[in-house]
Specification:
Number of helices: 10
Structural class: alpha/beta
CATH superfamily of the largest domain: P-loop containing nucleotide triphosphate hydrolases
Strand order of the largest sheet: 6-7-8-3-9-10
Keywords: Amino-acid transport, ATP-binding, Nucleotide-binding, Transport
Oligomer: single chain
Protein name: Amino acid/amide ABC transporter ATP-binding protein 2, HAAT family
Helix content: 25-40%
Distance between the termini: 36 Å
Pfam family, one: ABC_tran
Strand content: 25-35%
Organism: Desulfacinum infernum DSM 9756
CATH topology of the largest domain: Rossmann fold
Bound molecules: adenosine-5'-triphosphate
Order of helices and strands: EEEHEEHEHHHHEHEHEEHH
Largest sheet: 6 strands, mixed
Family: Belongs to the ABC transporter superfamily.
Shape: globular
Radius of gyration: 17 Å
Length: 237
């Protein structure tokens, strides 16, 4: 397994956000964690990235325990997070935002080549290269946030609620893009989403998170057909 998380516990003071979550992602997989508001999805990604302390349990990446490793070192190891609501640097240009994704990397990356690849995937970012990021639409900012994470050639991409605040047409576009990154470019992706249908449709496997614990897991197609999931997460009766 590329990523293995065991008995993960994350708390904020007395608030237990995640308690005892177990899950894993193999190299080449696209896995999603679906769950309602407040189920603990963002906390899980922040725990894997090293942005919040893990109270108990272990996080292993490529067979090595990284539970206590600082976030910047996890980034060097090849883990990248696309945060909720993109959070690009509003006053920096699109190009400068992209460069922040490569900043401080020990490994030298062929920057020009990566930029050419990214501009091929996201033509709008090349067109808007010199504009401040705050002038981009929500969907374009989301593309920029994904591109910024990809510039470093990560081994594992963590994606937090990529569909939030986007209109349905853009949601489809972003999910198609994630599927293509996984299928055609071999990128391993762990997605957390409230939009259960869209994420299950592109995932190999999924975990269902309720109040900080995994309550169900399986192939995404099986979950799409499961009456309990259909009732609770897909708006079907
Ligand atoms: P959403 O989809 O609404 O973002 P989520 O599934 O990502 O939800 P988290 O953001 O991980 O869930 O939150 C899990 C629980 O932890 C919630 O009850 C939330 O209120 C609480 N929580 C999250 N961050 C903090 C914090 N910094 N301080 C206190 N409580 C927090």
């Amino acid at each position: 397994m590329l990523l293995e998380v065991n008995r993960l516990e994350i708390s904020y003071g007395d608030v237990r956000a995640v308690h005892g979550a177990d899950f894993a992602v193999a190299e080449g997989e696209l896995v999603s964690i679906i769950g309602a508001n407040g189920a603990g999805k963002t906390s899980i990604l922040n725990g894997i990235m090293g942005l919040v302390p893990v109270r108990n349990g272990t996080v292993r990446f490529r067979g090595r325990e990284i539970t206590a490793m600082p976030a910047h070192r996890r980034a060097h190891e090849g883990i990248r997070l696309v945060p909720e609501r993109a959070r690009v640097f509003p006053r920096l240009s699109v190009y400068e935002n992209l460069l922040t994704g490569a900043y401080g990397l020990r490994k030298k990356i062929p920057l020009e080549e990566r930029l050419r690849w990214l501009y091929g995937l996201f033509p709008i970012l090349e067109e808007r290269r010199d504009q401040p990021a705050q002038t981009l639409s929500g969907g374009e900012q989301q593309q920029l946030a994904i591109a910024r994470a990809l510039i470093s050639d990560p081994k594992l991409l963590l994606v937090d609620e990529v569909s939030m605040g986007l209109m349905p047409k853009l949601v489809d576009q972003v999910f198609d893009l994630l599927q293509s990154l996984n299928r055609d470019h071999g990128l391993t992706i762990l997605l957390v989403e409230q939009n259960a249908r869209a994420s299950l449709e592109i995932s190999h496997r999924a975990y269902v998170l309720e109040t900080g614990s995994v309550v169900m897991e399986g192939p995404a197609d099986d979950l799409l057909d499961d009456p309990k999931i259909q009732r609770a997460y897909l708006g079907l009766v």
